[in-house]
């Protein structure tokens, strides 16, 4: 041992509320109505994810990051936000986006490679995906700070993964949020893998949550496959942010059941046995079992729900294909749109040269 | 109707793959989600699932075949009861061999371009004639510009290292903390990437941040937020989420501050769509352009110069003096050659013009002032008049602003040129620390004079 140097001593017990068999660990008052909503969204997100994967394998969609296994972590957390709160995603938050009312057809159009699907509705408070790892985190702190300066009580939830905690942005964002008292809930979905890098190779810290303490920010670990526990922890963090302007960090322990993105093949680096073990901790199954015991949910309702989801996804894909076929007619000059709030003179000239050339070629 | 099943693209970069294994055979019925085949790419082995229901009519590519191009038909899917020889509805047009493409006709090769209109110089004065002037340093002009805009719009705020209590590392924000308070003049931790990102977020959230970098050399730490977040989000959000903000601070060489503190980033930022880039020379331009930058709804890079901070000049004594972006200024008119520059480069351009006048060479000196957008019209009109051009900047020679101007002049005014355009730039070396070497590394007035003599054949 050491005489003068002290060692990190992270006292984190991951919070759990719901056992894998769906029984409540404590006699909590629970809001069955909200859990039903969460369940429906989790199931929808899972089925949508599965469909995306199929469509991608058919060449209909581009690369994307599946969320399978992380539904409870992100939907349980997003469920604690108000409509005027901000959600700042990384690139694996389809579930949270669906909870916030994202349109499946829009998502499909985007994934099929059309910018148009990414167009934010007026006043939207869910940001588009960020592909550079962790660069959304300082931005989240800035949005939160701006909200405070404008006298709003809306808060910001910023999503990222275990890998992002190695980026400078993560540390800069936490430091800033702490210093500025920016109301941000930093939601880390620790899914065990940053592409092929396991959590143990990501950092020598025993937990990711303890990193928040270094910036004077409270933090929690939670079973990320337990929607109820995630909600309970997030509610506390959201309240702290809203009422006290105090940022917080949540490390949701979950697992990436699928590929990192569709360009990845995890069988090359991870033991399939590990995936099977996590199957028993499936976040959706757990809530289903609770609802079977505590609500009207039965086989017939389950079947009806599956059918309704299938129909919605079918309809969304049909609509998306329709829109895509129209988008294929988009004139090439559209690439010059939205570079500046108002096009500059050289930009207008560039557009004109381009359309003149197109016309000449078509003559 | 029979449909072709095509070789899927399993990733955006995949062009071909190996059809490793068929898991279905002809005559099998498949439902959506059934795994039909295993496909190998250089990255991974993937299972390939059916999307539609049907019967496998024919397998067109045998398992084990390597180098199967994406979109090649690999099997035919029949509807229930359909004959195996049914002609599939072809979906594979894109896979058609390139050889079938029509050879372009002769006249298509060089599409006739409508003649460009003859550019004319933008000579509208920046302020009305007879405007009263006051003498100010660049430093004061900058401070006044920011303070006036902060009085005008309470969503504007200043953040950066040392901007509040210390009044700015270069004393640009003198007095601003007192007037606007700590909520709007914010000292940040030393974290360029962090505060650039926080400012981008604040601009998404409805404010108009001014970010001071102690020097643009330090903005290298923040470049991802400037380029990927600030410059691109409006485009990527379909015009919904812009970043109205200013990144400002000293840029380029000062004196004896070495390689890591002397870099001129003008050409770097001018290269990025979505950014506006300003690099003024005179005190009046600093003031008028800074006010415009703060009001602009886009991210603006405002490149200042440490040596110029202390220089004085006449600034119009107007309540609200702004200068539009994309408008060059002609400092002196001339007939024999156009010297074009911006920022501190103007000092060499103007000195050279004075000395050349003594030798009977009349130089027209154009100050671009903004590098995105560039006022090409004023430059081209000048070159079409003088038929000769020399560009001046302190930055490095490769992919410099001068290179770009030369290319533009060649494209648009080739027939007007009586000599090749010469780019005067800094030397292609990191800035030396030693005073004697530093002087050699920077562009000099003598080099500009020499270049002008070359293009005028004197």
Total tally of structural domains of chain B:
3
User: How many beta-strand runs of chain A?
Assistant: 7
Helix content of chain B: 25-40%
CATH homologous superfamily annotation of the largest domain in chain B: Thiamin diphosphate (ThDP)-binding fold, Pyr/PP domains
Please outline the major beta sheet of chain A: 5 strands, parallel
- What portion of the residues of chain B fall into strands of 2 or more residues? 15-25%
What is the alpha-carbon Rg of chain B in Å?
Answer: 30 Å
**N- to C-terminal separation of chain B?**
80 Å
How is the largest sheet of chain B built, in terms of strand order? Answer: 11-10-12-13-15-14-20
Assembly context of the chains: heterodimer
* H-E string of chain A: HHEHHHEHEEEHHEHEHHHH
Question: In total, how many beta strands of chain B?
Answer: 22
Overall radius of gyration of chain A: 22 Å
Mean pLDDT of chain B: 90
CATH class of the largest domain in chain A: Alpha Beta
CATH fold call of the largest domain in chain B: Rossmann fold
Give unreliable regions of chain A as ranges.
none
In total, the number of domains of chain A comes to 2
């Amino acid at each position: 041992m050491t005489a003068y140097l002290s060692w990190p001593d992270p006292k984190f017990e991951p919070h759990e509320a719901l056992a894998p068999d769906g029984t409540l660990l404590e006699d909590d008052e629970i809001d069955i109505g909200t859990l039903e909503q969460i369940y429906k969204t989790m199931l929808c997100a899972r089925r949508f994810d599965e469909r995306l994967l199929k469509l991608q394998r058919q060449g209909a969609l581009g690369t994307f990051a599946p969320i399978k296994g992380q539904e409870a972590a992100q939907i349980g957390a997003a469920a604690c936000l108000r409509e005027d709160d901000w959600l700042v995603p990384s690139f694996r938050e389809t579930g949270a986006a669906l909870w916030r009312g994202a349109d499946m057809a829009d998502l499909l159009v985007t994934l099929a490679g059309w910018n148009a699907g990414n167009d934010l509705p007026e006043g939207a408070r869910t940001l588009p995906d960020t592909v550079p790892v962790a660069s959304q985190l300082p931005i989240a702190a800035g949005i939160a700070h701006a909200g405070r300066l404008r006298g709003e009580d809306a808060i910001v939830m910023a999503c990222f993964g275990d890998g992002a905690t190695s980026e400078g942005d993560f540390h800069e964002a936490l430091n800033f949020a702490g210093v500025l008292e920016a109301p941000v809930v930093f939601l880390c979905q620790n899914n065990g893998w940053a592409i092929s890098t396991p959590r143990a190779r990501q950092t020598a810290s025993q937990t990711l949550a303890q990193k928040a303490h270094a910036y004077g920010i409270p933090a929690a670990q939670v079973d990320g496959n337990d929607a109820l526990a995630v909600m309970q922890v997030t509610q506390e963090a959201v309240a702290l942010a809203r009422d006290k302007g105090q940022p917080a960090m949540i490390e949701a322990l979950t697992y990436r059941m699928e590929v990192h993105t569709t360009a990845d093949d995890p069988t090359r680096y991870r033991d399939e046995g590990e995936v099977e073990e996590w199957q028993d901790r499936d976040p959706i199954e757990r809530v289903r079992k609770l609802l079977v015991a505590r609500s009207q949910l039965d086989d017939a309702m389950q079947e009806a729900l599956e059918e309704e989801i299938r129909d919605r996804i079918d309809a969304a894909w049909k609509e998306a294909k329709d829109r895509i076929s129209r988008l294929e007619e988009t004139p090439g000059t559209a690439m010059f749109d939205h570079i500046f709030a108002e096009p500059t003179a050289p930009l207008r000239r560039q557009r004109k040269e381009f359309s003149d050339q197109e016309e000449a070629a078509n003559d | 109707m029979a449909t072709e099943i095509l070789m899927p693209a399993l990733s955006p970069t995949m062009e071909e793959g190996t059809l490793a294994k068929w898991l279905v055979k002809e005559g099998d019925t498949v439902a959506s989600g059934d795994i039909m085949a295993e496909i190998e790419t250089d990255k991974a082995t993937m299972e390939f699932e059916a999307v539609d229901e049907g019967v496998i009519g024919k397998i067109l590519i045998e398992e084990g075949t390597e180098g199967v191009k994406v979109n090649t038909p690999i099997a035919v899917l029949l509807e229930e009861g359909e004959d195996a020889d049914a002609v599939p509805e072809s979906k594979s047009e894109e896979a058609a061999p390139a050889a079938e493409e029509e050879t372009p006709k002769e006249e298509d090769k060089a599409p006739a371009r409508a003649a460009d209109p003859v550019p004319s110089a933008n000579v509208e004065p920046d302020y009305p004639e007879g405007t009263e002037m006051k003498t100010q340093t660049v430093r004061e002009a900058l401070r006044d510009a920011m303070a006036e805009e902060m009085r005008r719009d309470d969503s504007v705020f200043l953040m950066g290292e040392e901007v509040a209590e210390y009044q700015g590392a270069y004393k640009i924000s003198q007095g601003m903390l007192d007037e606007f308070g700590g909520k709007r003049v914010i000292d940040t931790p030393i974290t360029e990437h962090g505060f650039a990102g926080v400012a981008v977020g604040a601009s998404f959230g409805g404010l108009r941040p001014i970010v001071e970098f102690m020097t643009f050399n330090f903005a290298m730490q923040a470049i991802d937020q400037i380029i990927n977040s600030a410059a691109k989000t409006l485009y990527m959000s379909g015009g919904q989420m812009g970043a109205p903000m200013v990144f400002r601070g000293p840029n380029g060489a000062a004196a004896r501050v070495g390689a890591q503190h002397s870099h001129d980033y003008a050409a770097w930022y001018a290269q990025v769509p979505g950014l506006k880039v300003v690099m003024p020379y005179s005190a009046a331009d600093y003031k008028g352009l800074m006010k415009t930058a703060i009001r602009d709804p886009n991210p603006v890079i405002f490149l200042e110069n440490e040596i110029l901070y202390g220089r004085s000049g006449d600034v119009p004594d107007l309540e609200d003096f702004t200068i539009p972006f994309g408008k060059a200024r002609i400092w002196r008119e001339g007939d024999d050659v156009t010297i074009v520059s911006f920022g501190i480069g103007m000092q060499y351009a103007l000195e050279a013009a004075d000395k050349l006048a003594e030798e009977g060479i009349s130089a027209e000196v154009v100050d671009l002032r903004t590098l995105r957008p560039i006022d090409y019209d004023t430059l081209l009109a000048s070159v079409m008049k003088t038929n000769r051009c020399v560009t001046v900047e302190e930055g490095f020679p490769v992919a410099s602003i001068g290179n770009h101007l030369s290319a533009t002049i060649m494209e648009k005014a080739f027939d007007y040129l009586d000599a090749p355009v010469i780019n005067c730039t800094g030397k292609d070396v990191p800035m030396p620390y030693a005073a004697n070497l530093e002087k050699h590394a920077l562009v000099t007035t003598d080099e500009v004079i020499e270049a002008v003599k070359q293009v005028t054949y004197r």
